[in-house]
Amino acid sequence: MIQDSNSTDHIDHEATVKTVDPARHMVVVTLTDKGNCDGCAAASICHPGARRDGVAIYSRDAERYRPGQRVTVRGTEQMHRRAIMLATVLPCICLVAVMFIVYLLTFSQGAAALAGLGAMTLFFVILYLARNRVAHEFTFTIVGHTGQD
Asked: Hey, is 51 helix, strand or coil?
């Protein structure tokens, strides 16, 4: 991961172009600095291990890129914050709220725990089903290239 010292509104990754589809303005890249993704909430979205085909990037000038070419891919800090909200903060709030309410209604820790597990399962099923609706919020851009490698 490369991050400008002058700007903290984006995160850059080094990547290698895997395939190019100029007709669809699509460039598929594989991140080469994936070791820096361990603490990132967006890693499941962009990490090469999460998608076998790599990261698909919309680019109007897709014809400029060739397979094997090294490029710099940029994601925004806003995208990172949104991923943290969806993957960690909202599920925690949901879990605590459901457990608290069920405990107040039943005075049973077991029922509260089961309701919390059910709520988490439901939350992540809904998030999975809505993945296409939120996918547009997690888009990357190609900001530079180093030529053919």
From this structure: coil
- 97 is written with which tokens? 């709220």
pLDDT tens digits for 34-82? 656 666 655 655 544 444 567 888 888 888 999 999 998 888 878 778 8
In angstroms, rounded to a whole number, what is the distance separating the alpha carbons of residues 148 and 62? 14
* CB proximity list for 46: less than 8 A, separation 6 or greater: 13, 31, 37, 55, 75, 138, 140
- 114 close to 90: Cβ distance less than 8 angstroms: no
**Helix or strand or coil: residue 38?**
coil
Half-sphere exposure at residue 149, Cβ-oriented, CA atoms within 13 angstroms: 12
